[in-house]
Input
Amino acid sequence: MAKQRDLRLDLIRSAAVVMVLSVHFFLNCGFYDLPVQGHRMEIAAIVRTGLMSCVPLFLLLSGWLLGERRWSLRYYKGALRVIVAYGLAGTACFLFRGLFLHGPLRPGTWLRELLQFSAAPYGWYIAMYLGLFLLIPFLNAMWAALGQRERKFLIATLLLVAVAPSIDNITAIWQIQLLPDWWNRLYPIAYYCIGMQLRQCPIPWRWPVCLLGAAVSTVCGGLVHIYLMKGGPLAYLEVTYWGGLFTVTTAVLLFSALRQWPAERWPGGVRWCLDRLSRLSLSVYLISWIPDQLVYPRLAARVPEIVDRLVWFPVVVVAVLLLSLPLAQVLVWLEGGILRLADRLWPPERAAVTTGGAPGPSAAPAERRGER
Output
């Protein structure tokens, strides 16, 4: 008997992938080229701060879903789906660049870009997630060996070394560095452990309180970021980046709110849409770069003023999503064929499903800007 899917987990994954496409709107519409001045730009900066929770939501979901995985040689087969999905999306993006954007079509370039996780320009998350995937069985073994009090101290330690240094963006005003930022790239492990903790000890607040807290954290983070920019363009800052203090707070509260969301009475059509979007989320994220190249140049041509483009935010995000879905479905069909072939060559023990936390947003060369 098939295990029934958890609609709330589908909701979290679906919300996260839509937030990813929304973050890409600010990346592609010219938002970062303008100074943050005027109410429209300030509201957009606050909205963008909240949307930065998209990557943390996927990582929290990984901890929630994969916290009981144990090491075995067959465990590593679980990475195959992520690798195949990335390979197919990377190949599609490479061909699109070559055929429509006059990029190179040489096999050597294709292979090099695949190995550098740049064939799909939004593929940086796959490089990060695969590293986390390799660590998961050992993180789980460590977690299982700890008592509840020790687990809380582990999370507190991870927050101290990976998250707390982000406040140096604020203390820099007084030319003070309170904490070393050497370990700030540990944020994926911090989120993963928080996800495990949330499954065992959920936040006791009801979903409206968690949602309100996430909104307050978003507004505070956005206002701090605006203040630190002092009227200039919105630049990358650790305090509102993936592992930033405000992002962690918003993500944990938003995850907790969505996990409790009263979704039982939703119509069957809504449930089906969430199920499909959740299943396609990894490929939607990776392939959305192609619709971005089709939609945003047309937006720029029709709406020359960047500030006026912000009004089109929901329309553009929905358009990119609708264009990405059929492309993602084709990739998933191809992926299914490849994985079935792999099952014949390497029969499953019961293969570990490891895509709980894949995917995430764009970030590669422009990663230092906060979105790519």
About this structure: The chain has one domain: 7-91+124-357. Residues 7-91+124-357 form one domain. The chain has 15 helices and no strands. Residues 360-372 have pLDDT under 50 and may be disordered.
